[in-house]
Design goal:
4-stranded antiparallel beta sheet; alpha+beta; 2 domains; 23 helices
Length: 564
């Protein structure tokens, strides 16, 4: 039986280290599925399993634990950046600016409340107390990447050994999850909100808002100005994206291209944005009832087919430059990306993974399918090169020192901030560098979760030895109480302002607050409370910037204040 004892006690053994992580992660994941009051801590329970393992002496070499921790963090934040990158800059459009400003204000308030608690309840002469409050802050806002960024920055400030801020994080996290949902519910009563009225308002807005969805209509040409004009000239004059997928001229149906000329009396099947429909009708002619497009399609073997863009060569190319109508005799009328329908404008950039709706003769559509790839099997192959090229550039970028007056050490974005920023940029602009950034949702989630559990397990195991003393004999209860204040005060302030001043729908506010705290359980609760997509829209609008600010401010706070 010596071999089994050796397996659990020989910390230098590779088998021991692998067994350690396997046990901690497995126990943490299974315990994280337990729900209390419909709320679970999820994968974060791996941290608590790691703390328990460290407390009983089931641990490994510090150097290996640190390596696994840092590698897990890099993998986690990079995959997050790759996911949020495509929508990062678009999130600032229209009402997104206000939502992101409210979100940034909540993040600033979290930091201010943390400092308030620090000066009110803790001994400011102890250099370990402020770092522990930073850990409490990130537990209170349920943001693990921020914990990783702060942990890394502390190594620059405390080269001889940084405080184990994971203890503060662990103390504040459980009540943070509950507090986010509880404070969100409290806003409903503070602002006297009727959820039924809020959902009715969303229904009315959906009915009234054209929101640029693709719109089909049959039009008869009655404007004499159009006679002899080409489709390109009409589109340029209107200054609106318009797709003419069918043309009835002298009883014959054809698929027009950019050089097709129109005559008075022609009938067109037009696809455009809902918001542009009235202007297009006013210019071309009235809408008419028609069945000729379907009848002729059967005779001429016209088809409409969804084609998936899978060829890397198509990545970044614009719809206008592909000349589908003139070269291939087909038209692209819809584009779907990650489940969302996008109007097929001329300036649209194709990304690998896009689904396009192509209309035309069957043989021409098949030809376009070959050009675009249309291979689901190819999509399933992961683009490993892009991931590791991005990580390489991110680590180099994160290691660049930026000297800022007043800071004791140069600012470095580190292994959390550097890969995050590079991943966001690659996710948004990677096509310009011929990088294919597409990964399936399952692949992205798998890599994220592996990185996260490796990070949490490592942090927990390292923190376990001193956790009991921190909670029982130290300031554990203070961390719990301060964490609760850090959680709820900004939510109540920002949520009330968003409602009373900016008149946002309550469900949008719920999603915005969940995104600000990067808290999936809060989003799940919001989605369960509303049949519309408002919570998800609010969440996705602020999530990219919030994640970036959480990670960035973690390092700023540590380097500016903990090093003083």
């Amino acid at each position: 039986m010596d071999w089994i004892v050796n397996l659990f006690t020989n910390t230098e053994s590779v088998a021991h280290i692998a067994l350690l992580y396997a046990i901690v992660i497995a126990i943490g994941v299974y315990l994280g599925k337990i729900k209390i009051g419909g709320i679970s801590l999820g994968v974060t329970f791996v941290l608590f399993a790691g703390i328990l393992a460290g407390h009983v002496g089931f641990t490994g070499p510090k150097e290996i634990l640190t390596f696994v921790q840092d590698f897990g963090l890099i993998l986690f934040v990079f995959m997050i950046g790759l996911q949020v990158g495509p929508g990062f800059f678009e999130s600032f459009k229209k009402g997104g600016v206000t939502l992101n400003m409210l979100s940034a204000s909540a993040i600033l308030l979290n930091i201010l409340v943390m400092f308030g608690c620090y000066y009110l309840f803790f001994d400011t002469s102890n250099p370990n107390n402020l770092p522990m409050m930073v850990g409490t802050l990130y537990g209170a806002v349920t943001n693990t990447p921020g914990l990783g960024a702060a942990n890394e920055a502390l190594l620059s400030v405390f080269p001889n050994g940084a405080p184990s801020i994971a203890n503060g994080y662990a103390c504040a996290y459980p009540l943070g999850v509950v507090g986010i949902i509880g404070a969100t519910i409290l806003i409903k009563y503070i602002c006297k909100i009727n959820t039924a009225d809020e959902e009715a308002q969303l229904n009315e807005e959906d009915a009234a808002n054209p929101h640029a969805k693709a719109h089909n209509m049959h039009l008869r040409v009655e404007n004499a100005y159009i006679t002899g004009r080409t489709l390109r000239e009409v589109s340029e004059f209107l200054n609106r994206d318009i797709v003419c997928s069918r043309l009835l001229h002298n009883g014959e149906v054809s698929i027009p291209n950019s050089k097709t000329k129109f005559e008075v009396g022609d009938e067109l099947l037009v696809v455009c944005a809902e918001a542009d429909a009235e202007a297009i009708k006013a210019f071309i002619g009235p809408e008419v009832e028609a069945e000729w497009d379907r009848e002729k399609d059967e005779v001429q073997h016209f088809v409409s087919r969804r084609i998936i863009v899978t060829r890397p060569e198509m990545n970044g190319k614009t719809l206008g430059k592909m000349h589908f109508s003139s070269v291939y005799g087909v038209n692209v009328t819809r584009i779907s990306r990650q489940g969302m329908d996008i109007f097929a404008g001329r300036n649209h950039h194709f990304h690998v993974g896009d689904k396009i709706l192509v209309v035309g003769p069957e043989e021409n559509v098949n030809r376009v399918a070959e050009i675009m790839g249309n291979s689901v099997k190819r999509l399933n192959a992961p683009n490993i090169a892009t991931i590791f090229v991005g990580i390489m550039v991110g680590i180099i970028f994160g290691s660049l020192p930026f000297a800022i007056p007043g800071m004791p050490v140069p600012l470095k974005l580190g292994i959390a901030g550097g890969p995050l920023i590079i991943a966001i940029l690659i996710g948004r602009f990677g096509y310009r560098m011929k990088l294919v950034t597409y990964t399936t949702t399952s692949a992205n989630m798998m890599l994220r979760e592996i990185g996260l559990v490796l990070f949490l397990a490592s942090v927990g195991i390292k923190a376990g030895a001193g956790f009991w003393d921190t909670v029982v004999q130290g300031d554990g209860l203070k961390y719990v109480g301060c964490g609760f204040l850090i959680t709820i005060i900004p939510i109540l302030i920002i949520g009330t302002i968003a409602r009373l001043k900016f008149k946002f729908n309550y469900f949008t506010i719920m999603g915005m607050l969940a995104g600000t705290y990067t808290d999936p359980p809060a989003l799940a609760y919001a989605n369960a409370s509303c049949s519309k997509e408002a919570p998800a829209v609010g969440y996705s609008t602020v999530y990219p910037l919030s994640m970036f600010l959480r990670i960035f401010t973690a390092q700023i706070v540590v380097l500016f204040f903990c090093g003083a």
